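Open question from group meeting: does this chain pack into something compact, or does most of it stay loose? Before anyone orders reagents, we agreed to write out a predicted structure and look at it together. Recording both the input and the output here so the notebook holds the full record.
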Amino acid sequence: MDDMDHRILYAAHAWGADPRVASAARGLSLAGEHGALWLAAGLAGAAADGARRGAWLRGTALVAGAHLGSMAVKRIVRRPRPTQVPPLVRTAGRHSFPSSHATSAAAAAVAFGALGVSACTPVAAAMCLARLVVGVHWPTDVAAGAALGALTARAGARWVSGGAPGTSYAGRPA
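Structure tokens returned:
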């Protein structure tokens, strides 16, 4: 697995040689710091969609919870960040596993996607890839973070929909 991690990291980081790709990856990394993009999106959804304000706020809370969970796992695992490629961004911490950016992105894609926001999925995927392009995560960090985020959002599905029996995640009949 280490060999695969290295090969994927080198290939993704090589895309950052294109200034446009590097700039986009840096921008996504900055926007995703501490889940900021996703928390802002959830709060904007709550403000704009009064009929489902509660669902938006609960989905946003799930994103925040997933992010906090990833930070707790980082403190336990303590995997160092890659040093094989020069990072294109500064990081808030030294630990790499799991990627908190990927965790909050995947949680938002699942939670907000269920509320009908399909644009979250490609942005979340781009954010996950950006963490490799900027050279601050191993691919397995990103995969684990995305899995943690998606599973957290799915686990909270009933809560987001208001917990009504017979309703799906988006609050529609099951």
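Observations to bring back to the group:
Residues 164-174 have pLDDT under 50 and may be disordered.
DSSP finds eight helices and no strands in the chain.
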